[in-house]
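Z., the sequence and structure:
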Amino acid sequence: MDNNNSDKTDEKKSVNEERIRSITLAYYSRLDIRKAMFEFSQNRECIPRYFEGFGKRPDSFQYDSDILTFIQKGATSFHCSEELWKDPLEISTDLKDSEIKELRTGWDLLLDIDSPYLEYSKIFADLLIESLKIHGIKNVGVKFSVSGDTDILIKKNKEIGLIRIDNAIKLIREGEKLEVLSLNKNKKLQF
């Protein structure tokens, strides 16, 4: 099956696939999301992921509307390189190492700090960031992943309380209306 073709004439799409496709279409239809992704993607190889596999390589976004086009063709996510390139479309497995080095203009360093002890991970991340700053690295970002048993603060019917993420998802799927404490675009907390 062609990875770039979302038409499944021989088989019916699963309920899960239909749900994911509708969520991705709603999410990537947002202009602010596409604009942020497009700005990030400059000089990076970016390829779509479909249910059936990955899209062709190399690939990149020429316009922010390319993202929506991929979604309409069935993409469910996008994967971008850590490397920065003069022209990502020139990347090829036929190139020699020296030719690849000529194309590469930079890269992002990603460190995944996994530990069963979140507090230790936070301390290590703080120490690592301070060390990077001492060495002149200025552009540092931090992200923590959470699991289904992580508590979040919600508001339901004007009442505020803690609930596990997996329980919140279950309630939402059952039609409950919940508000989750989050950061807004101005990085202010709000439900």
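Residues 1-10 have pLDDT under 50 and may be disordered. The longest helix spans residues 118-134.

Let me know what you think.
H.
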